[in-house]
């Protein structure tokens, strides 16, 4: 069972109870204000990421190779969207697990990411044939 979705509400409730025991109603007011501020910060980040993604084509990334290098297991879809500045092209059936998204660059290289329970579990980079030319710094 996934307990992580219950940890934040339980921690918030314990914080409010602790604030009441320590400072009374003023503590509760402070704890609730802090929780609202935390929620607004996350909402603001989500809106900012989605606003940037709305200005780009679906499934496009500047460099699939760089995206492949920056990805880490366990990050959520919002984090990957912040990296790519684009919504991913949905390659699986909508609403079913696992969710599979693809981002393609101008050279037709693409990164396909698989998300389970909202977290990145695996990704693959595919480069088209004839794209193995190494770029030298000289």
What are the salient characteristics of this protein?
4 helices, disordered C terminus, alpha+beta, four-stranded antiparallel sheet
Question: How does this model look, in words?
Answer:
By secondary structure, the protein is α+β, with helices and mostly antiparallel strands. It has two domains: 4-53, no CATH class; 56-126, Beta-lactamase Inhibitory Protein, Chain:B, domain 1 (2-Layer Sandwich). The chain is 47% helix and 17% strand. The protein has helices at 4-23, 25-54, 64-70, 77-84; strands spanning 89-90, 99-104, 110-116, 119-126. It has a four-stranded antiparallel β-sheet with strand order 1-2-3-4, with helices on one face. Helix 2 crosses helix 4. The longest helix is centred in the N-terminal third of the chain and has 30 residues, at 25-54. It is elongated, with a radius of gyration of 20 Å. Residues 134-138 have low confidence and may be disordered.
């Amino acid at each position: 069972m996934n307990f992580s979705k219950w940890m934040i509400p339980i921690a918030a409730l314990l914080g409010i109870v602790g604030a009441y025991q320590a400072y009374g109603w003023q503590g509760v007011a402070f704890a609730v204000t802090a929780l609202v501020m935390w929620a607004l910060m996350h909402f603001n980040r989500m809106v900012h990421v989605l606003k940037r993604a709305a200005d780009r084509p679906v499934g496009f990334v500047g460099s699939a190779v760089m995206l492949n290098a920056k990805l880490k297991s366990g990050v959520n879809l919002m984090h990957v969207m912040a990296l790519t500045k684009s919504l991913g092209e949905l390659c699986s059936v909508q609403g079913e697990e696992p969710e599979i998204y693809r981002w393609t660059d101008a050279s037709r290289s693409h990164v396909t990411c698989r998300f389970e329970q909202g977290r990145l579990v695996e990704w693959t980079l595919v480069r088209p044939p004839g794209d193995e030319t190494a770029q030298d710094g000289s």
